Structures are given as structure tokens and as C-alpha cells.
Amino acid sequence: MNTMLRKSVLGIAGLAVAGGLAAGPLNHHEAAPVTGLSEAAVVQADKPDTAKLIPHGVQGAQSKIDLNDEQTANAKAIIAATKKAGLPERAAVISIATSLQESKLENLGHLGDRNDHDSLGLFQQRPSSGWGTPEQITDPEYSTLAFLKGLKQVDGWQDMPLTEAAQTVQVSAYPDAYAQWEQQAADIVAHNWNS
Q1: What number of other Cβ atoms are within 10 A of residue 185's Cβ?
Q2: Sequence-separated (6 or more) residues with CB below 8 Å from residue 41
Q3: What are the record keywords, sorted (predicted)?
Q4: What CA–CA distance (Å, rounded) separates 6 from 15?
Q5: Among candidate residues 75, 40, 26, 80, the one with its CA nearest the CA of residue 181
Q6: 9 CB burial (10 A radius; 0-12, 13-18, 19+)
Q7: What are the φ and ψ backbone dihedral angles of 106, each rounded to 5 degrees?
Q8: What is the pLDDT of residues 113-130, one digit of tens each?
Q9: Please, are residues 74 and 92 in contact by the beta-carbon 8 Å criterion?
Q10: Cβ(137)–Cβ(120) under 8 Å?
Q11: Given its phi and psi angles, is residue 171 left (phi above 0), alpha (psi -120 to 50 degrees) or beta?
Q12: CA quadruple 15, 190, 195, 35: dihedral positive or negative?
């Protein structure tokens, strides 16, 4: 939706607009009916805003994969663990983008010769590096909480670009690779955070 139409929709709904972003979600029960807008414009106004989930904007070209039921369940488990840890949506975006890079949101067991050392689970964490037992690391809640514990130890993670925060926790050989998943991770979080 273009900026002028969005501001018009938000202005009609009586919302404060600052810098192009609404101060809060539309409340359809109290807002006056909006006339003269297409159905598509109303649907777009209801769509979650991912701008707060991507405060620095995406870095570089973005990748996207179609998720199967298992991957979707793992993304929802990451969101639930983030809430359990008392962390904001941005932490879930960083976690999901990290898991998309490390495992494509698949809870990977030992891959034999193709395995990167003894890396396992959604985040490819290693028992030999102190992340936990193989059973713990392949539990989506445990592995997410372990990742988030590492993230919380990164000073200023909330204000860092995603790839920098993820790399500080993961120490990957490909530190910039996390950035390519930021938009899909933000979309997943926006769609599932309140469900």
C-alpha cells in the first residue's frame, strides 16, 4: 500500500501517525466506517506491520522457503519459547532467522559425514560446545531457550542488525548469511505472535 493511501486510511480511523507508522492497531469496533476504499485496502490495513520487527531494514537480498507443517510447528515453538523467556518479538525474529539459516527450521539429528562436527537441532548447536545433551538440543523449546540465553548476554542485541546479533551467539563460518532470512522471519513472527 502506498504511503499516502496508508496515511489516509489511518487518519480516517483516527489514529496518530508518526513517521508513517501507526501508533497502534486499528480498533474496528470503535472506528467510524471507512467508505470509498477497496476491500484490498482494508485488508492491507489489517495486515501486521513488520517495520518494528526489522528496525534496520533488511540487509541484502532476501531468501524465502515454503514451510511444511513441521517447519511451521518449529517456528511456533520458537515464538512460544521467546514468550516464555519474556523477550520481545524482535528476539523471535532473530531466533527464527538463525534457525532458517542453520537448519531451514528443521529439527536435524546427526547427519553422519555431512554433519558439521556434532551440530544438532534447529540451531545446529553442539553438545561438545556446551549447548546441552543431544536430547536437549533436539528439543525445540530447550534449544531456543539456550539460543536466547546466549542472545541476552550480547550487550545491545536489541539495537544490532540481525546478522550481527545472531553471529555473536552462533559464531558461524558464514556470519552474513543470517541476514537473508530477516524478512521471512519477521513475516512469520508477525503472523504468529498473537495466535
Answers
A1: 28
A2: 1, 5, 9
A3: Signal
A4: 11
A5: 75
A6: buried
A7: -105, 135
A8: 555 567 899 999 988 889
A9: no
A10: yes
A11: left
A12: positive
Q: What's the whole-model pTM score?
A: 0.72
Evaluated on CA atoms 2, 161, 173, 100, the torsion sign reads negative
For each of the chain's 195 residues, which pLDDT tens digit applies? 433 333 333 333 333 323 332 223 333 333 333 344 333 333 333 445 677 788 777 888 999 999 999 999 999 999 999 999 999 999 999 999 999 999 999 998 866 555 556 789 999 998 888 999 999 999 999 999 999 999 999 999 999 999 999 999 999 888 899 999 999 999 999 999 998
DSSP helix/strand/coil, 18: strand
